[in-house]
Design a protein that fits this description.
Layout lengths: L1 E6 L9 H10 L5 E5 L8 H9 L4 E4 L10 H14 L3 E3 H4 L2 E2 L4 E5 L20 H4 L10 H29 L2 E5 L10 E2 L2 E2 L5 H4 L2 H12 L5 E6 L6 E6 L2 E5 L9 E7 L1
Parallel strand pairs: 1-2, 2-3, 3-4, 6-7, 7-10, 10-12
Antiparallel strand pairs: 1-13, 5-6, 8-9, 11-12
Helix pairs in contact: 6-8
Bound molecules: fe (ii) ion (2 copies).
């Protein structure tokens, strides 16, 4: 039995020095941390991850906020560098299948609100993502151009899961999936309800959901548990008998541990 402390959407850029010190001092004893994105912003995410790594191995994905005031390519490059330098840091898109216990492994990818669920074309949501992440073109970008980018980011994550889940499920009874964006409508908890069609395009990653369902359906004797965040509303969704999704709750400026999972 090992203890995996799961955190999501901790947005540590909202804390000052004393708050950060108190937060890191409050972390529970664990064999490892699983962090499902929105850790900070482009300038500070790597530093915060290194602080976790001083305590225990860290298995993480990045969320949309982790690229704010920077670029996806730039942050990913910096994170890769940190992972090369710090043995305890593991960015899941590069880590593949990570054995955690004899029967449980971890697989993960950042994911992205891919615009496929809900009603993208009628939605009036304008996320800060499109202004604060260099790869997007701000207000001036057409909706179609933006949607192509959302699709590509979702598809990249789905391709990762298609590449690694069959092997993970053949070797382990239980696969813990780490991803930032909820992969199913039913998992898009926001203020106690499932998000509406206005928000769903940005709150869900359908491409990943499709890949997870395919993998779970092909391995009915295996169990998959998905940990995600992004919507800041906590909830659970049972998608298939062997596919369960936990979405983490979050409040800006009040980072916390979602739960400590006892993993067999
Ligand atoms: Fe968040
Ligand atoms: Fe997010």
């Amino acid at each position: 039995m090992k203890r995996l402390a799961w955190l999501t959407d901790i947005h540590l850029n909202f804390l000052r020095h004393a708050g950060l010190k108190a937060f890191f001092a409050s972390l529970p004893e664990a064999d490892a941390f699983a962090i499902t994105g929105d850790i900070g912003e482009a300038h500070d995410v790597a530093g915060h991850l290194r602080a976790f790594a001083d305590r225990a191995p860290v298995y993480f994905v990045l969320g949309n906020h982790d690229f704010y005031r920077g670029s996806i390519a730039g942050v990913r490059a910096e994170i890769r560098e940190s992972c090369r330098e710090v043995a305890n840091l593991h960015w899941m898109p590069d880590a593949g299948v990570v054995p955690f216990t004899e029967t449980t492994c971890l697989v993960g990818h950042d994911g992205w609100g891919d615009g496929r669920l809900g009603d993208y074309h009628r939605s009036d949501v304008m996320l800060n993502d499109f202004k604060l992440i260099e790869e997007f073109g701000g207000f001036w970008e057409s909706k179609d151009e933006r949607l192509a980018k959302l699709h590509a980011l979702g598809d990249e994550a789905a391709a990762h899961f298609r590449a690694f889940l069959p092997d993970a499920l053949s070797r382990f009874r239980h696969v813990i999936v780490l991803t930032h964006v909820p992969p199913f409508r039913e998992a898009c908890w926001h203020e106690g309800k499932v998000s509406d069609d206005n928000w769903l395009p940005f709150f869900s990653c359908k491409a990943v959901g499709d890949a997870l369902v395919e993998a779970a359906a092909a391995a009915p004797d295996r169990q998959m548990s998905v940990l995600c965040g992004h919507t800041h509303g906590s909830g659970e969704a049972q998608i298939l008998p062997n596919l369960r999704v936990l979405t983490g709750g979050a409040v800006y400026g009040k980072p916390r541990v979602q739960r400590v999972l006892e993993v067999e």
